[in-house]
Amino acid sequence: MAQPYDQFILFGDSLTQMSSSQEDGFGYQPALQDAYGRRLDVINRGFSGYTTANALKVLPKFFPSPRTATVRFLAIFLGCNDACDPGMSQHVRLDTFKHNLKRIIQHPAVQAHDPRIFLITPPPVNEYQLEAFDASEGVSHPSRTAARTRKYAEVALEVGSELDVPVVDLWSAFMHSVGWRRQQQGDHPLIGSRDLPNLAEFAALFTDGLHPTGKGYRIQYDAVMKTIRRTWPDQAPERLDMVFEDWRVAPV
């Protein structure tokens, strides 16, 4: 009887869909697949443009039955589209976004596997790059702001706390990489907003102010692996056996 690999499902929007490309020599999904090679199948279920509302509708259509596969990990990486300007069709209100994340985590199709679930917060955005990107897309006003995106990242952290689900704080990881610190709160302008000069080091993390470059995806990969090692140390790649034996001990 066939012995399938357990699955590590990456569920998200275009930030997940596009993570299979190795821009700047690094791709998030390929890095995970390399780390878990011969141990888990890393499955990309990224849907460009999707919000948590869209994700809820598509989830039962692709999520495998326990009869056909075992999902060991589920990474939920949504919110950058929900955080669009309220005047845009993709916008999802904060309270609805929070409710949708909980419904995804608690969905019967997911819970049937009892997988190791973790959330990834939306990363920050760079309004300077977004302005040029939005103009090229025919959008006359900014589609996203640094301040609003931060709120969606904070809500993802709240969901994790309330449901006892680990959260990869990608928003903070990006910001910390360019010198931002948590004490810079309140009315302090955010890196990436037009209230501060455009920071080249920050812009280097994005292709268009929203989607990560290889540098950005490397930050994401490192943060995800840190969370796995801290939360489930027995699931670190080096702690898992290969599904099929090494050639030196495999039967002839």
Offer a few descriptive terms.
252 residues; 5 strands; Rossmann fold; single chain; 38% helix; alpha/beta
Question: What would you note in describing this structure?
Answer:
This protein has a 5-stranded parallel β-sheet with strand order 2-1-3-4-5. The protein has 252 residues and is α/β, with parallel strands linked by helices. The two termini are 19 Å apart. The model has no long low-confidence stretch (mean pLDDT 92). The chain has one domain (6-238): 3-Layer(aba) Sandwich (Rossmann fold). Helix content is 38%, strand content 11%.
Distance between the termini: 19 Å
Alpha-carbon Rg, integer: 19 Å
Q: CATH superfamily, called what?
A: SGNH hydrolase
- Broad structural category: alpha/beta
Please report the number of helical segments. Answer: 10
Mean pLDDT: 92
Q: In CATH's first tier, which class applies?
A: Alpha Beta
How many structural units, i.e. domains? Answer: 1
Order of helices and strands: EHHEHEHHEHHEHHH
Strand neighbour order, sheet with most strands: 2-1-3-4-5
Domain SGNH hydrolase-type esterase: 10-219
GO molecular function, one term: hydrolase activity
Protein name: SGNH hydrolase-type esterase domain-containing protein
InterPro entries: Iah1-like, SGNH_hydro, SGNH_hydro_sf
